[in-house]
């Protein structure tokens, strides 16, 4: 689909009705064993089109359809599916690190990314160092000859710093480091990191790609063949793969991603603007707002926004916070996001920062605007603030 816009690619990538009896959606292949037709094929270890030695975990037509669609959306060489977003992060980091390496990770990274790095990479002899997400080209001062990976997340999914991705990528290339990014917030629709110097783009497809809060899925896109082979080998050696039904749900989610994101974006902006006017709210952390740090970088590189953002309020005692949140009707309290449902969650970034300090003494709440009517969501929040005021 040369020159097709992303909305069109979403509807057509990764499917071929002519090859499936005219059926619009690719079939779901449930597979563990792949048979060799002859002894000669078995002894040759025939690998085309699917690796029969490693059987169904290597892939099926369902797997390839999903990976081809993601790769086309991100302008990647190829993609690799995994069982979750964290599985994708871990697989990518395994693929490009070894004992004695130095890895740089943004201080705003997803909590489980930090835990994997600290609890798995460090015991294996990898030096892990965290950096200020606003460092930009200044990351040059942290790079070492043995820096193998620079890991980004822009914006951060808790505090929403936007990183200068091209500047960091250019600096990392001077020492041959592989540049990775967790691109879940922006999705392949709003940001194509491989066009900005990134080598490996990672998504928790559980979130916006699946979009219906009913499947766990991850995906890794690679800029070139060598990077894809490294990731594929890491996935193969650790038995990493997603189930066919979850992959099918990822394909289903892709078809409606554009229209869902329009609603997520519009509702989140409406909520952010309303929240900014509440006297208890001291800051709204949403990159699309002009007064949010990193807004200019967001405008330059991304320009669109999804449904996830945070607010900082005056410090709220626990009983008052419970009164505020416990009786919400439309917002649920849960750690995931990206689905059709709206969510709200207290957050404590100071507890996880190491390269930077989070000194704001206020109470932070992270919100995800789902697909409900924005006015109804505002009414739900209005009631929450009324309960908060009554409890103070």
From TrEMBL:
It is an enzyme of class 4 (lyase). The modification N6-(pyridoxal phosphate)lysine is found at residue 207. The keyword Lyase applies. Its EC number is 4.4.1.13, 4.4.1.8. GO terms for biological process: L-cysteine catabolic process to pyruvate; transsulfuration. One of its GO terms (molecular function) is pyridoxal phosphate binding. Keywords: Lyase, Pyridoxal phosphate. It comes from the Bacteria. Residues 1-24 are annotated as: Disordered. Pfam families: Cys_Met_Meta_PP. Coiled coil: none annotated. InterPro entries: Cys/Met-Metab_PyrdxlP-dep_enz (IPR000277), Cys_b_lyase_bac (IPR006233), PyrdxlP-dep_Trfase (IPR015424), PyrdxlP-dep_Trfase_major (IPR015421), PyrdxlP-dep_Trfase_small (IPR015422). Its cofactor is pyridoxal 5'-phosphate. It catalyses: L,L-cystathionine + H2O = L-homocysteine + pyruvate + NH4(+). Belongs to the trans-sulfuration enzymes family. This is Cystathionine beta-lyase. It comes from Azospirillum argentinense. The gene is metC.
